[in-house]
Amino acid sequence: MDITTRMDLLLDSGVLSARNYKVVKDVIAHFSRAHGVTLTEENGAGFITHLCIALERTGKGEAVQPLASEVLEESQSEPEYPRARFLVEDIVRFIPELPETEKDYLCVHVGVLLSKLQDS
Fold first, then answer.
1. Helix (H), strand (E), coil (C) string for 81-93
2. Which ranges in the chain belong to alpha helices (H)?
3. Band of the pLDDT at 31, cuts 50, 70, 90?
4. Burial (Cβ within 10 Å: 0-12, 13-18, ≥19) of residue 24
5. What range(s) does the PRD domain occupy (predicted)?
6. Are the CB atoms for 77 and 59 separated by under 8 Å?
7. In angstroms, rounded to a whole number, what is the distance separating the alpha carbons of residues 31 and 34?
8. Mean pLDDT of 10-31
9. Which of 56, 95, 96, 110 could make a disulfide contact with 84, Cβ separation 3.0–4.6 Å?
10. pLDDT(120) > 90
11. pTM of the prediction?
């Protein structure tokens, strides 16, 4: 499965709206164009899946529990964290309504993505 197939499944199953499908496609293109980060199923599945769900949750006004402080602190101590935070803040132009709690979760996923890119 590739990342687009994952998104298509989320769209077809009603988990992802057509509007948010386009937003996620724009984020994927922006990562590649602006940052040279190509999102694939292997490196970006967790990030993209969480982004899709976060967009839907935000659109419905549903809140997510904040990350446990230990998880947040551990994430912030990782060497990838500053770039992960930068990348997440950069995509806020596409989703300005994204709450800080969702950004924290996305930073964890982007940190994992960046770590996978370094390992490959």
1. HHHHHHHHHHHCC
2. 3-12, 18-35, 41-59, 69-77, 81-91, 100-119
3. very high
4. buried
5. 15-120
6. no
7. 6
8. 96
9. 110
10. no
11. 0.92
Mean confidence (pLDDT) of the chain: 94
The residues spanned by each domain of the chain are 3-119
For residues 71 and 77, the answer to whether their CB atoms sit within 8 Å is: no
For the stretch 63-104, pLDDT in tens is 999 999 999 999 999 999 999 999 999 998 889 899 999 999
Measured between alpha carbons, how far is 34 from 9 in angstroms, rounded to an integer? 27
CB burial readout 77-95, b (16+ within 10 A) else e: eeebbeebbebbeebeeeb
Q: Is the pLDDT of residue 119 over 90?
A: no
Nearest Cα neighbor of 52 from 86, 15, 88 is: 15
Selection from 70, 68, 73, 78 nearest residue 101 by Cα: 68
Give the amino acid at 64. V
CATH placement of domain 3-119: 1.10.1790
